Amino acid sequence: MFRQPAILTLLEGIPYPSMILDSSFRIVTMNRLMVAATGYEADRVKGVHGELVVRSNVGNSRGQLYSQVIRTGEAVSVSGDILNGYRHKVPVQYHISPLANGKNGTAGLLVIAENVPSGKGDNGGDSVAGAPPELIGHSPKMQKVLDLIPLMAHTDASVLITGETGTGKDKIAEIIHKKSARARFPFIKVNCGALPLGLLESELFGHVKGAFTGASRNKPGMFKIADRGTLFLTEIGDMPMPLQVKLLSVLDDRQFVPVGGEHSVSVDVRIIAATHRPLREQVRNNTFREDLYYRLNVLHVHLPPLRERENDTRMLLDHFLEKYTRALGKTVTGFTPSALQTLLSYHFPGNVRELQNIVEYAVNICKGKKINKEQLPPYIFEKQPEAVAPAQPPVTVASEPDEKQQPSNPPAVDNGNGSSWSSIERQMIVDALKKNGGNRINTAADLGWGRMKLWRKMKKYGLLG
Description:
Structural class: alpha/beta
Keywords: ATP-binding, Nucleotide-binding, Transcription, Transcription regulation
Pfam families: AAA_lid_14, HTH_8, Sigma54_activat
Region (Disordered): 390-420
Number of strands: 16
Protein name: Sigma-54-dependent Fis family transcriptional regulator
Strand content: 15-25%
Organism: Desulfofustis limnaeus
Distance between the termini: 59 Å
């Protein structure tokens, strides 16, 4: 009755999670978006009752809605939530339509779970915040990371997040905060590699009036602003040694003295740190304090590079294609087979961030329904160096004294090697800020930009702190 190739072609053309059920409400097949939404491979759940796979609160317990559609022959559409593969509620408009058998009967059902943008659901107050779509992934390594997030959220211990550039360390930190008891207090991000020593110290701990030239008023630091919340220190491996000492003192005593001040300030802040650098190697080279390393590395999670995430690349391509197609008001429906093969063969040294940029680029210049090879960035056709798979440590909850970090020679991704335009621009801004001592007026002038453009770029690349 159901010819699989024809059904799959039909389903893949539907831009929402969809599946076909037979007349007994057993799954015949489902599209990639439904696989992504439920976390189940189509072959694995073939023959299983649809409601057991797509669990919902739309009033379809024991298949009442399915039965109603079969009995009346009329489609139904109801609002509600489905429970996705990460056990998060996702608001949907649930459409169930009969499939005629050509003999005035019903052969089965077409079920579509249309995503509904809403303020509730993932970020609602009835549950912990869910993972953002950019963290989708069913590879075993990524699933281990996602499974650890709730555990990390239910403690105040420091967290160290490691992983290559572009793997989503910032997003993991934000999710941990949103799921924690500190969620209603500030989540403050500081890029430790973006500012020189003096400015970074003032940024973190604040200063008092007259502490240095230009200090015309008291300024609270990020530690004070993040009080009772979470302070996310990204690029912690780039923090200057003198500040490492002061950070260690704050972690131990929960107190600090602002620059130029005389009195201690007490704070209650949880620290999440992240780096793409091999901190253990830096400890051996005496460029990172060993005591601070162990103080930060109470809980540890390592994000795998995209090349180690098996089939996640295809899901991310579909996700970002939908995102940018919707944002740009275009009708791009997919990739041509040759373009898709090119993308799936590419190593993505810039990981998810690079994949996202490539899809955004392609959607912008695509004038048809499908993205072809000519509409992909030219640099991805250049011969790529062999990807070196670093021997990363497994995902862990408790730190281990002998736990190994990344190899001593980390891959120089996103570092001006032409692999990512955005990374080059970001590095250019960081270099200009360092050159000008953090002075944004001079930095903007150096770059030939206006101050607002520099501000927008710094915000885009997470350099505002």
